[in-house]
Amino acid sequence: MKYVISIVIVFYAIYLTIKFLGNTKKSWLEIEGEILENHINELYNSTTLESHKSRTYEVSIKYSYSYLGKEYQSDIVYDKDEIIFDSNYQAEQFLEDYIPGSKVKVYIDEENPDSSCLISVTLTKKQELGIIFFVILIVALMIFFIIKFV
Questions:
Q1: pLDDT in tens, 36-71
Q2: What is the Cα–Cα distance from 45 to 86, expressed in whole angstroms?
Q3: Rounded to whole angstroms, how far apart are CA atoms 48 and 45?
Q4: Which candidate, 142, 139, 109, 126, places its Cα nearest to that of 21?
Q5: Residue 3: which pLDDT band, with cuts at 50, 70 and 90?
Q6: How many domains is the chain partitioned into structurally?
Q7: Domain encompassing residue 90
Q8: Beta strand pairing call for 84-85 and 70-74
Q9: Is 141 buried (19+), middle (13-18) or exposed (0-12) by CB count in 10 A?
Q10: Angle, in degrees to the nearest 10, between helices 125-149 and 2-24
Q11: pTM
């Protein structure tokens, strides 16, 4: 009976891992692009006290890329959210890698090449397989200790 429960747990853990990876996955293709321009936007955030305002700094990067003979331009830097810094210095440091005229990696959605970004947190196939292997290993170790010591 312990073995049946153990097998069910392993398959359920694998199922949940694959389901999670499937929900977070977007198929990005890495291609080369070129930085056209960059700048820093200073943002003012009001707090509850009207006299106290804080500043944050948002980077803006415009880049171009070519896919299947068609030229595209975009200003999406990060595929999840805006990139905001607490200081102008941090924003300037970040932009050092995105100087106009420099070549960069651009991640595009093959199904919709208008959709692109410079920084993607989407997992690659190797990373997905690594996570699945890790989950299987942890579950197998848990099962081993349950069978051995319970």
A1: 999 999 887 765 555 556 788 999 999 999 999 999
A2: 11
A3: 10
A4: 126
A5: low
A6: 2
A7: 28-121
A8: unpaired
A9: exposed
A10: 160
A11: 0.63
Please indicate, yes or no, whether residues 90 and 35 belong to a single structural domain of this protein: yes
Task: Provide the phi-psi class of 114: left if phi over 0, else alpha when psi is between -120 and 50, else beta.
Answer: alpha
User: Mean of the pLDDT values across residues 84-106?
Assistant: 93
- 47's CB contacts (< 8 A; 6+ apart) are 53, 54
Helix (H, G, I), strand (E, B) or coil at 93: helix
**What is the maximum alpha-carbon separation in the chain?**
68
Q: Residue-wise over 33-59: b if at least 16 C-beta within 10 A, else e?
A: bebeebebeeeeeeeeeeeeeeebbeb
Joined tokens for residue 52: 């106290």
The pairing of strands 53-67 and 84-85 is: antiparallel
Question: Do 8 and 74 belong to one domain?
Answer: no
Residue where the block lists tokens 């359920």: 12
